[in-house]
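User: My instructor asked us to take a sequence, write out its structure as tokens, and then describe one feature of it. I'm not sure where to start. Here is the sequence I was given:
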Amino acid sequence: MKKNLLITGLPGTGKTTLIRRVLDRLPPGAAASGFFTAEIREAGGRVGFTVNALDGRTAPLAHVRTGGRARVGRYGVDVAGFESLALPLLEPGKAGLYVIDEIGKMECFSAAFCRMAAALLDSASPVLATVALRGGGFIAGVKARGDVALYEVTVKNRDRLCDEIARLLQERLR
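Assistant: Let's start with the prediction itself. The structure tokens for your sequence are:
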């Protein structure tokens, strides 16, 4: 079994939901650390994203009203806000399983995040992550690693993938 399990797919196919469902199926006491991303919506439209720790803490990731040079589309990326929450959650040796949602363009504006994610992928602990479907540089490099199993989620296969990935992680965490 490959140690690191990465989920990719088109937006809206349920990558984050799949990871949440997998975590719900792990045995009690499976020490996990990491984060999810979530949309910020105002007046029915998406205006940004937050980063959310597994323990419920949140920090800004990107917003239409955030300025600066770090931009993805109309969103300004709050690199400092992201790093303040995400980096301590990804310290090697902190958990038996690391969750990263996601390894994408916004997160990759942080060189420190890229270094820490690479260190986790190299560590003894498994990593369960979502990764952008498209992207070069660090994103492409992560997907090309020999210790990575890459799953492309679709609306049709997401229930089957949840069962398969949960089973693999349960075996790995024993």
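For the description part of your assignment, you could build on this observation: The two ends are 13 Å apart (CA to CA). Try explaining in your own words what that tells you about the chain.
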